[in-house]
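Quick question: what would this complex look like in 3D?
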Amino acid sequence: MTVKTEAPPVPAAMTRPPQANAKKTSWTGLWFVLPFAAFYALFLVYPTFLGLYYSFTDKSLTGRAASWIGLENWAEAFGDERAWAALKNTAVFTLWSTPILVILAIVFALLVHRARKMGWFLRMAFFAPFVVPVSVVTMVWTWIYQPDGGLLNHYLQLFGIQDASTPQIWLQGENGIAMWSVVITTVWWTLGFNFLLYLAALQTIDPNVYEASSIDGANWWQQLRSITLPLLNRTTAMVITLQLIASLRIFDQMYIMTGGGPNRETEVAIHYIYIAGFEGFRIGYASALSYVLFVLILVVSVFQFRLFSRKED
Amino acid sequence: MTAVQERAAAAASAPPAVRRRRFKKPTVGAVIVYVAATALAILWLLPLLWALSTSLKAETEASLGQDIHWWPRDWSIEGYRILLERGDHLTWMLNSTIVSTIVTVLTLVLCTLAAYGFSRFDFPAKNIIFGAIIAGLMVPAQALIIPLFDLVNALHMGGTYWGLALPQVVAPVMVFILKRFFDAIPRDYEEAAKLDGAGHLRILWNVILPVSGPIMAAVGIFTFIGSWNNFLWPMLIATDPSMMTLPVGLQAVAGGYGLFYAQTMASAVIGAAPLLIIFLIFQKRIVEGVAGVGLK
């Protein structure tokens, strides 16, 4: 394990010029880092390698002895149509939800930034859902989506958009209806976080920039396009990467609201891993599936990492 | 009366704060902004208000087949009474409080120590350890559930508070955020304290922590919210109802209410209340925290 490896104490100390006397190489710092490093090694590094090992075995949740089966799990995973479908559903969810979660967050942040006198109330309204537990979110939205007597169908019928004799089935609706229902719920639930990121970014923009362009006769749309949005680029890049990572890990809402239905249209990657491991008892196979997802998330995370590290300079 | 006089009269009668603003006439754009923002805010609050409204109706009034109305005709707290008498929700709330508190306290202590160590000392293998921890930013906890589940059971922590809490403590991102903050604190005070003979822990406690209030609050609040709302891990570990956290418990009984919608929504309101209250109290800190985590 890398964490416990003791490299010869050369690099950090030697490359530093001698006059930087604030830091001296000693063991003291290690004692501060050690408690976290121990937790980290036990609950993150070790399981990461344990999972990799399991993926080459036929380990089962039933506890019988596992044996090495080489690449069998991996070969099966790459040929598993249900796994590909789950990845596709995850991608569909990501593609549908991310643009809304970015654009609406910008719109809300721009509005709240302008409507300063109501700032407190607006921030509260838009961010509050984010602190609500997922099972409460799904309870409330399942009730709203109820085909008979649910709030949504009631208003659709009231405004004449829907015929009362054929109420729409949302959470088990085929051809993407169920997926859209989950997307809408997720947007409502998690938009507040992106919104706050954008609002914070807007508040760092120097108002003088706008004044100068107003004198030049720029209207608000030109200002938005040529000043505000470019200045938000970094935030947008961060929001999109965070959003992609969160979407690849999506599970809770689908598991609770649709159970993956109808016809597995909303069965996502983590859900299938859960099914393979905890319902099918196939720990080895589920570990191989996890690693496929892991690699995908890793690719996206590299972008996030570069964003974070660029901030350092 | 001329326009100027009108304004002067209005200004004289208005309180000082308003007076200054009176000179700015609201533009059409501003009116549109305020109307749109208010409309969207109300739309955003509707699901929560609908849950609250349903929970305060009598069961016959709330159920399916009844007409939809927002203001309860027959106010009733029957749903809440039944749930609280049964007591499960209080148990789960207590479990969530215990687990989230363990996670938050341990995260703050471990991450602060580690961040301080990385920020202020050179020690053997420092860069390797830091690199390994930063690499952990990219490891998704959800992809680790299977080996973690196995590990926690092997440690005989399945179904215990420790099994629920400890795997959630590993938060490389918090080490990263705190280190970045500590790096920006000038060393002068520490040098002075060192001359007075203070040890490293004393310096951390007396010099660093007092100026790190906002960032510590942000890290603490986000860790607490994240842990409180965690669903997948507690669902795997806490299979016994008496050990369930609030989100898991709520989900476990959600189907059991059948058509009792007032009761279901009372359950939802009880589930949402603790963090909503914390959020309202700490709103400013949380907003600053998001800004700080995202931008600094």
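Answer marked as accepted. Residues 144 and 150 of chain A are 5 Å apart (CA to CA).
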